[in-house]
Amino acid sequence: MRFVISIVAALIILGLAAFGVVSAQKMAAAPSPATASDSPAAVASQGAPVASRRNPVSQPVSQVAQASAEAAPAAVAAPTRMAQATQTVQPAPPNAASSNASAQAKPAPAANAIPTCDKPGGMGLARIVEIDTTGGPGFGFEHFKQYDFLRDKEVVLTFDDGPWPGNTPAVLKALADECLKATFFEIGKHATWHPEITRQVIDAGMTVGTHTWSHKDLARNPYAKDLEQTKQEIEMGISAVHMAAEGRKVAPFFRFPDLQHPPQAVAYLGERNIAVFSTDIDSRDFKLHKPEDVIKSVMSQLEKHGKGIILMHDFKRHTAEALPELIRQLKAGGYKVVHMVPKGELTTVPKYDEMLSHEDKLSSNNTRPESSVIRTIGE
């Protein structure tokens, strides 16, 4: 009898042990709620085939890899689900690697991209180049041969001696009709006479530099022997254009009258971090008085040199008249227009601002419009 009782007891103990093992296996196999809902791996595995989620260990390595690949599309939904979960708990730090990858996949558009020309058949700009004027670099192969930033068949359009009524606005219209930009080197006196045109030029997206106060040849006396008079001629021109602009950006770009470059004046502009511009192609529109002659002069020189900074004068009526046809021939010849902009901004010297204010007082009685002061009574 004792023997039978012992056997029964042993069987009961074995049964209890087996039940305990099975329960432990079930508990180990079941994922915790936190793991099932919060883990990215768990989120991805929810999209996998049922067989692979239930018993992944029983599959060969090759089949596990294949199952992972098939489950990949379901895993894409994980970031959304994770974001929704963290909104109610605590924001998770962004994944730097994902952010970098997204930035590389979708590059931001360039801030200085050239707008599409909205003029039918308009020429449009080819490039915009930024000039760092630190130290007063010089440009234009007629005098400065170090910096050659133009590619073959590229030109820069520049105009001197404005602003001037009638002519400068006509030049602006010809440029606007083709979605083009140019650089204007203004005489200080002219800017004080016609400040509204200076503002019109800048508002049209053009670059405005300076061209002295009164267009004096700084290589001649008294300027050649007197640096202070040279500085005054340069700086009063700067102050005048700056005043006419009324807070608009004026470029630290300068062109010497008659393209005369006295060394002491060049050195001074270097100290002021103002770039000096000569030319590659002189239109000779100061000597040529017919639009067709100006066009022929520019195009024949371009055929020889292939590219260059073109010097013209918006002060001259025949130049304004020539510009539309000149642009047409540039386009037909395969030339492209480059626009120059400064990296920095022109600053004035208070001493010369004050001189300009005294100069302006000489014309303080000129408050009436020109049409009410002067009229033609016979021609």
Write a structural description.
The protein is an alpha/beta fold and 379 residues long. The chain is 48% helix and 12% strand. Helix 12 links the parallel strand 6 and strand 7 (275-277). Helix 10 (195-203) crosses helix 11.
Secondary-structure element order, N to C? HHHHHHHEEEHEHHEHEHEEHEHEHH
Shape: globular
Helix content: 40-55%
Structural class: alpha/beta
Gap between N and C termini, in Å? 151 Å
Mind telling me the C-alpha Rg?
38 Å
Number of strands: 10
Mean pLDDT: 79
User: Which regions contain 5 or more consecutive residues with pLDDT less than 50?
Assistant: 28-94, 96-103
Task: Estimate what percentage of residues fall within beta strands.
Answer: 5-15%
Number of helices: 16
**Major beta-sheet overview:** 7 strands, parallel
Please give the structural blueprint.
Layout: H1 2-29, H2 33-38, H3 40-46, H4 50-54, H5 61-75, H6 78-87, H7 96-105, E1 125-131, E2 138-139, E3 154-160, H8 167-176, E4 183-186, H9 188-193, H10 195-203, E5 207-210, H11 227-245, E6 253-254, H12 263-271, E7 275-277, E8 281-282, H13 291-305, E9 308-313, H14 317-332, E10 336-342, H15 350-361, H16 370-373
Parallel strand pairs: 1-10, 2-7, 3-4, 3-9, 3-10, 4-5, 6-7, 8-9
Helix pairs in contact: 3-5, 8-14, 10-11, 11-15, 13-14
Summarize it.
The chain is an alpha/beta fold and 379 residues long.
Task: Name its key features.
379 residues; alpha/beta; seven-stranded parallel beta sheet; three-stranded parallel beta sheet; 16 helices
